[in-house]
Amino acid sequence: MIDASVIIDLHNGGILKDIADLPFEFLTPDVVLAEHTNPPSDVVLRSGIRVEELPGRLVQQVADLAPQNRKLSTQDLFAFVLARHHRCLLVTGDGRLRALAEKQATECHGTLWVMDMMVEHGILSPASAHTALETMLAKNARLPAAECTERQRLWREMQSSASMPDPE
């Protein structure tokens, strides 16, 4: 399950289209897609993200969660309920949504995890990941500063070690 904040980050970094190459299926609620203007919904759909409409009983779960989670948007709650329903991990950049997911024992990751997976699976080079992250940050992505700095260091090291000639 992927929420709007991560979709926007990946789009801003120029790597949204690359998530289709990961060995995961990304899913988002129809209400999350409906809110997208940047990127437009057709760009999201071309990235391979599947859209799912919540049945009435899941919409009721969203309504039941809303009073105790007033600081979360309806779209956030739709993403959470759908992730919980499918027993899949939730990919979000929203701290409050992450807290709810952790409290309810739903595995949760963010934009940097998606990028790590892209590097690990050879979809992005460390240099491309570094550039994409710089672009996201320049476009005001709300990512944890310490983790961004650590990733940049790690990706620079990976890039340096990959460009070093093997000793004979």
Structure overview:
By secondary structure, the chain is mostly helical. The protein has a domain of 108 residues: Rossmann fold, CATH 3.40.50.1010. It has nine helices and four strands, in the order H-E-H-H-E-H-H-E-H-E-H-H-H. A two-stranded parallel ribbon has the order 1-2. A two-stranded parallel ribbon has the order 3-4. Helix 4 packs across helix 5 and helix 8 runs antiparallel to helix 9. 35% of the residues are buried.
User: How large, in whole angstroms, is the Cα Rg?
Assistant: 17 Å
CATH architecture descriptor of the domain at 4-111:
3-Layer(aba) Sandwich
Strand content: 5-15%
The geometry reads as globular
Write the CATH homologous superfamily of the domain at 4-111: 5'-nuclease
Low-confidence spans? none
Quick check: average pLDDT? Answer: 92
Number of helices: 9
The helix-and-strand class reads mainly alpha
* Share of helical residues: 55-70%
- Order of neighbouring strands in the sheet with most strands: 1-2
Question: What's the SSE pattern?
Answer: HEHHEHHEHEHHH
- The CATH topology of the domain at 4-111: Rossmann fold
Largest sheet entry: 2 strands, parallel
CATH level 1 class label of the domain at 4-111: Alpha Beta
Task: Characterize this entry briefly.
The protein is mainly α and 168 residues long. The chain has helices at residues 4-12, 30-34, 41-46, 56-65, 74-86, 95-103, 111-120, 126-138, 145-163, and strands at residues 27-29, 50-52, 90-91, 108-109. Helices cover 56% and strands 6% of the residues.
